[in-house]
Design a protein that fits this description.
single chain; 334 residues; alpha/beta; D-Maltodextrin-Binding Protein, domain 2; 8-stranded mixed sheet; two-stranded parallel ribbon; 10 strands; disordered N terminus
């Protein structure tokens, strides 16, 4: 036997014992870090204006999440550039779970592909935490706008090329791309008019500044109920449970047409997996609360509550899908 062998074996065993101890210590440290989190208030950056389809559910979730975490969850609205301003704030934040982003899908899957220099890389600088909801959009018209069906709208738009305005909450939004796709698929030349968020669209509709819009169901519902606007069609493949009498665009002459948006929470890349897991579990518990789930459904959406990996897969899929549409339509944020 090699006289060095016993000595090497002892060293190897010692090394293995040391690595095992270090590994155990690391696991205990990670668990302790997750258990201690959060140690102060959590900032939830919402890259959209107050009162819109992203802000309303964000505040609903933030209030209940604060109760579960035992720390304030402060909503910080950072609108502008289709969500890029708020996203850049979170991308630069410390990856410790105390700064999160509540984002509409457009800020993650559309805006980075229509704005040349967004200042961050969505596929590198963020990690998914939790899906909040998924929902269709709705094509609405004011009472004074003559067409009441998709077929009538298409006929009018073809008869008056470049004269029919369709409002949306901002360039680079899902609504913007959906409106452009609708006009293209319908063979029309409608004018896409951006406003400052969903609240801006709703105000324009209420004032009569514009007769047609693609909006979220939640923000248009009050105007539907008081008769200011009427729904023409929804953008999902299946009818909305909130508006079951309203047909889909797909069944109204444009087969296969679909535009779904979602809201999700993201953290800066590098946030420890234990903290991501804790946040996902706590947000999932919030979404299962009857008052939260019912309110989200009242807003025309379906509550989420899936693991972070599922959020990541949905993000990657939509990034590719909308990317193809954007390139085909030649869309830009300007």
């Amino acid at each position: 036997m090699d006289p060095l062998e016993p000595r090497l074996s002892r060293r190897a065993c010692a090394a293995l014992g040391l690595f095992g101890a270090l590994g155990g210590a690391a696991l205990r440290t990670s668990a302790a870090r997750a258990q201690a989190f959060p140690t102060r208030s959590v900032r939830l950056v919402v890259p959209a204006p107050p009162g819109g389809s992203t802000d309303i559910p964000a505040r609903l979730v933030a209030g209940k999440l604060a109760e579960r975490l035992g720390q304030p969850v402060v909503v910080d609205n950072r609108p502008g550039a289709g969500g890029a301003i708020g996203a850049a704030v979170v991308a630069r934040a410390a990856p410790d779970g105390h700064t999160l982003m509540y984002s509409a899908s457009s800020a993650m899957t559309i805006m980075p592909q229509v704005q040349p220099t967004p200042g961050f890389n969505v596929r590198r600088d963020f990690t998914p935490v939790a899906m909040i909801f998924e929902a269709p959009l709705v094509l609405v018209a004011t009472r004074s706008f003559a067409p009441s069906t998709v077929a009538e709208l298409i006929a009018l738009a073809k008869a008056r090329p470049g004269q029919i305005n369709i409002a949306h909450p901002g360039n680079g939004s899902t609504n913007h791309v959906a409106a452009a796709l609708f006009s293209r698929r319908a063979g029309t030349d409608m004018v896409l008019v951006p406003y400052n968020g969903n609240a801006g669209v709703v105000s324009a509709l209420a004032r009569g500044d514009v007769g047609l819009a693609i909006d979220s169901i939640g923000t248009s519902l009050p105007l539907m109920r008081d008769g200011t606007v009427r729904p023409i069609a929804v953008t999902s493949l299946r009818r909305s449970s909130v508006l079951p009498e309203v047909p889909t665009i797909a069944e109204s002459g444009l087969p296969g047409f679909e535009a779904i948006f979602w809201n999700a929470v993201f953290a800066p890349a590098g946030t420890p997996a234990e903290i991501i897991g804790k946040l996902n579990a706590e947000i999932g518990a919030v979404l299962r609360l009857p008052e939260v789930a019912n309110r989200l459904r009242e807003l025309g959406s379906e509550p989420g509550g899936v693991p972070p990996e599922a959020v990541g897969r949905r993000f990657a899929s939509d990034f590719e899908t909308w990317g193809r549409v954007i390139r085909d339509l030649g869309l830009r944020s300007e």
